[in-house]
Amino acid sequence: MANKADVWQGTLALMVLKTLQTMGPLHGYGIARRIEQTSGDQLSVNYGTLYPALLKLEQEGYIASEWGVSDNNRKAKYYRLTRAGQKQVAKEAREWEQATAIIARFLAPEEERS
Amino acid sequence: MRRLRALFLRLGGFVQKQDWERDMAAELETNLQLHIADKVRAGMSPGDARRAAVLEFGSIASAKENYRDRKSLPLLETLAQDLRYAARTLRKNPGFTMVAILTLGLGIGANTAMFSVAQAVLWRPLPYAHPDRLVEISETNPLKRWTHTVVAPANFADWQKMNTVFIGIGAYDPTEVFLTGEGEPQRLKGIALTANLFEVLGVAPLLGRTFRNEETFEGKSRVAILSYNLWQTGFAGDPHIVGRSVSLTGKTYDVVGVMPSAFFFPGHDKQIYIPFGFKPSIFVEHRRPHYLNVIARLRDGVSLAQASRQMTGVASRLEQMYPDTNTKMGVRLDGFHDTLTQEKRPALAMLLSAVCVLFLIVCSNVANLQLGCAAARVREFSIRQALGAGRARLVRQLLTESLALSLAGGALGLALAVFARAALLRWIPAAIPRYAELRIDTWVVFFGAAITVLAPLLFGIVPALASSRADSLRDRGDTGSRRGRSLRNVLVGCEVALSVVLVVGAGLLIRSLIGLENVDPGFNPDHAVSFSLALPEIRYAKSERTVRTIEEIESRIRTEAGVQVVGTGMVLPLHGTAWTDDASVEGHAPGDYERELRHNVVTPDFFRATGTRLIRGRSLNGFDTEKSPPVTLVNESLAKNYFRGADPIGKRIKFGLMQDKDPWVTVVGMVADMKQDGMAARVEPEVYVPLTQADAEGGLGVSVVVRGSCNPDALIAAARREIHAIDKDLALTDVTTLRDLVHNSVGDQRFRTTLLAGFAGCALFLAALGVYGVLAYSVAQRTREIGVRMALGASAAQLFRMVLRDGMRPVFAGSIVGMAGAYAVTGLIQSLLFGVAPVDPPTYLLTFAILAAVALAACVVPAAKAIRVDPLVSLREQ
Lengths: 114, 878
Prior knowledge:
By secondary structure, chain A is an alpha+beta fold. Chain A has 4 helices and 5 strands; from the N terminus they run βαβαβαββα. The longest helix of chain A is centred in the last third of the chain and has 25 residues, at 83-107. Chain B is of the alpha+beta class. Chain B has 28 helices and 23 strands. In chain B, the strands form 3 sheets. In chain B, strands 14, 15, 16, 17, 18, 19, 20 and 21 form an 8-stranded mixed sheet that branches. In chain B, strands 3-4-9-6-8-7 form a 6-stranded mixed barrel. In chain B, strands 13-22-12-23 form a 4-stranded antiparallel sheet. In chain B, strand 7 and strand 8 (251-258) form a beta hairpin. The model of chain B is unreliable at 472-480 (pLDDT under 50).
């Protein structure tokens, strides 16, 4: 467990949005689990960072929440993507790809650059 | 946008805390349970599963903390928390809190009040449409030393025709009119004007209409518009006033309108507006004398400079066309607002700076008090730091305490400003234009609020930084307090230095005021009263009738007991001039333009009544009649300027140009220079023509001076009795003693001097408070040391001296810095000084003496306390 990396600052929001896009409405625990699974268990999601991130996304209107019932019959808060959230996923994904592409060029071996 | 939305939601979160706290707890709990359930499904025992889940989950407390931070605004939360804490701390220390709040209230109140004065007099836009497009046009003439003078009617009319830069040009001329037939006759400011002036100013009437163009001229001009003030006070706000007729100085006018209450002309008396009523020929022929005030509105897109260029061209064309009258006659354009305010600007700028300095003193004083308090709280801060409060957190908390103080001080200050407004309105001399508009408006409140919020940064930052410095628990504050003490001494030094600047400034102004009041006014202000009379035109149409009435009034008052001498003149000393005109001196080249002189019309006893010395020749007398050869008296300035010091008696002057047909007038006497425009102003050449020989047209306003040995009220009562015996409708107005005349003529200077002296007094008091505070504290802290010294044999006198030395050291240092500062800045108020140089050794010495005395007094109490220390008790104490 100690060798799992914490989620990098700034990327958690995109992960949450993308997770909700693929999975549909989920509660906080489900989101955390799913992110860990998707990362091939290389990431661990701390609730101390997840909840403020969810709250921020909600305050910004990218996700919405409502109370529902979980598989084990408990009252749970479910988060789902809003329309603004859909657009935001696309936008952030594009930006992320751009950013990684740029960084990749820097990290590429000297001779490959032209 | 999204951020804004989030901010609002967080603000909401701050307000409804209860609801979401519950939700958050429920949500976290659910997730924990889900987590445990997963672990159990994976085969763990419920107990292990729970432990593992909690471990993986991370600290619930910290999750909640993070959640809270995001849900609400943490800054706001801590601010509210700190404010509550600050209020508690301050309540526990009522002495400090009271003094700090009072001091801050004084500083903020004084600043807000001063700001409201400057706002009313200097900054608030004039009550006209687009006031920034209005310009005043005046005439200039280097030959007559005119830099800024009123305009001749024909020049004005030509400007109207020859310019393309103005939408309109209007003119006005303030005169005095007497309203009769509405109870007691009253004197009003009558503004005679061209009909288009209201249009130029862009102001619509409240009731009725403004003037029509043809009403400017004779024949149609018996119409009047009332100011709001006059309508309310003189006519009880009569809603049917339009269409009524009123009697002004014996002529009947139809009221056609009332102006709105915000409207005003320079000066703030009860005003009535009437058209000039000129013959059309006046606007064609009269290129002298000059008496119109001219206001124009710039066309859109035309700048002041462009307009100036064109008008200069117009003036030079007029110069070519009318060389007799317009040689070297130029024009000058100024923003209307500037011309109204420029005279008051230096004094107000000085007062504003002074009140800022006072504010700085207030701030250093409060900082000083806080440092004293903080020293007592070293332990509290150390504990807080030990418990994990960062320095920034401590600084923030201390600044919040400062804010709490400042908010209370600000509330007090605003109350003070409201009170000051009422006091100022009663007290500000009428010479300050627009003073009646003094209001606590939005801007004033905003200003007060702004300095209230900014003040904690000024006075709070130093104590906050100083006392939040890491002092560990075992440090008992000994070294910290020494550092604190030297910081406090620096602050006291600053206070002293700033006070010195204010006291020196006040000293200079006081010396100027005393100097002004002791200037020889050229007349004797003691034992004399004066009042104005308006002789209504209808009954006094013929000038012989006027002359005979005035002579009768004089002789009847003279018979009253206690009256020594009675004289009459058109213009009293210190009241400017009736009119000025060209004059020619026999034997000089024609067209010698330097000969512009002032006219006054007097009865023979005018000079004895005012107490003006006859220097040469003879005074006027009963033999100077309309049939005898024309004579005049002149003042010393005239003799000096016109005859270059030669004896003027027997010389002849013509009141007009050389080629005019006016008769030559012989100078028969020379009197001392009476002050005309104020005690500080240079006396201009003036002639005194006998009433019998003046072509006094009907409706003459004159002032009577009565000199006598009995008290002023008795003199006035006697005069009133006799005048009413002659004509009971004659009103005595402007009743005053000549002493008050002098007194009021320096009202403006007295106003600024009193204010600055008040500020300086506050500054001194605060500085003394600072000196006292630091010294008393240091004596209390050094009780043990003093006890040891005593035990070792120091005498009371030695200890007393030691404490005094400690207390006075920052005072001396501050004084020296302050003197240097005063030396640097008093040059800026040179224009406000009279008869005293900005660097005036007596003032500086006196300042130093006063300051040293006050500081010494502040030091004596702590020093006395020090020598009463009982060495045994003090040593046992610690």
